[in-house]
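Checked the freezer inventory, then went back to the computational side. Two predictions to log before the end of the day. The first one is the construct we discussed on Monday; recording sequence and tokens without edits.
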Amino acid sequence: MSEIFNIPVESGDGTQSTLEEYKGKVLLIVNTASKCGFTPQYEGLEALYKKYKDKGFAVLAFPCNQFGQQEPGTDGEIQEFCSLNYGVSFPVYSKLDVNGADAHPLFTHLKQAAPGILGTEGIKWNFTKFLVNRDGEVVNRFAPKDKPAAIADDIEKLL
């Protein structure tokens, strides 16, 4: 099993844990923002989650304010926004950094395992998506412009 399950994370309510509870599941890990042109993708992410959650799939959202200051709210405000505006029922974790010196270890791991275009590791914008198999291995990275519905076939292959 991959080290991804041992990386500490903080839930939107401040609870500390790891991704251990997701061992054996296919994961789509996404850096999100509430005031981004891609924010409506929450709807597509929720649709994927509802469609596949009973087959061992989970969407994990990690809000980030590093791109155009598009996630200015507190963790509580972000949770409320996601629930009220998009009916999000998948986990939305505490806000974190995905790039730079303060990049969260989860995103450091994801970027190293699945570099972007031309081998660059840095995340370019909100709603970059990482698909992780049941063993915790990162199998693909999707650009912000890639709509969640377009990832369904890749998810199905891993389920």
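The second is the one RB wanted added to the comparison set:
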Amino acid sequence: MIPRVSRKSISAEELKRLMSPERLGSYEQEMGSPAGAVALYEWNLAMSAALFESLGAVEVILRNAFHRELALRNSQRGGTGPWYLGTWIDTKGRRDVATARDRATGWGRQPELEGKVIAELSFGFWRYLVAKRYQTTAWPALQKAFPMHPAGSATPRVEIEDRMQRIHVLRNRIAHHEPIFRRNVAHDYADMLTLVGWISNEASGWVEELSRVPALQAQRPDQTA
């Protein structure tokens, strides 16, 4: 259920003062009234949290699938170190890897474990690994991370990139507490399920079973709120 703030505990005027007129203004414009703005703000909070729950599962499944395929390719090619130290990674990617290694090792105070480095790499790093610039380097390995795609080993890179790009934008908006009520949330949610479903049908069903997104979609307040 959507958490509801008692109108006795906070008024629309007080929330606007605390959140700033600018922040609450877009909600009021959408709903047509101060009370409606508060209702939509509460819904936006709840939907953001629900989407982030699903995103969390999808992101971990994606990055681990990518890690497995890149590590396998590196091993098959005789690599002696972690795949993320490969010279094929561009300058921005190498900066991301360096930051992740620093965090994973406590800036050199602890041994480096690949799993910790993988966990520290941002979603943006993984999203850019499916960009056109890696068509001939990373993509031949990464396309194998999607065995359930209808095209199988011929999975089109652009289909993965488009969905990951949209999810990345959504993730950043949620992380920065920005409004998402004007987004096509159903489309965002479908992107998540599609991506994870191309990796594992079971995983897609699991994410869907746990998700609060569909229920919250049906509870979005309208302009009569």
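For RB: The chain has one domain: 12-217. Residues 102 and 109 are 9 Å apart (CA to CA). Let me know if you want it refolded.
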